[in-house]
Amino acid sequence: MQHLMRAEYEEDRPGAVKTWHMVRGEDVVAMCGRALQAGAKTLSDQEWGRTAEPDCHTCGAMYLREVP
Fold it and tell me: Which domain of life is it from (predicted)?
C-alpha cells in the first residue's frame, strides 16, 4: 500500500501548512480521521519527519503499524 503525506492548512493563512498528515493512497481523509482538502499538497511518505512543519502524532503512530 502506498502512503502519502497530505497538508492541513492554517485557517487564517491560506497556503500555509499547519500540520502534515498521512493518508493511504490518494485518500483525502487522514489516518487520524481528519478530513483534508482534495487539492492539498502531498509529499512522499519518505519525507515524514523532515518537514519544517509538525507531523500529526496519531497519523505517525498508525503509519508505523502499517509499514515494515
Answer: Bacteria
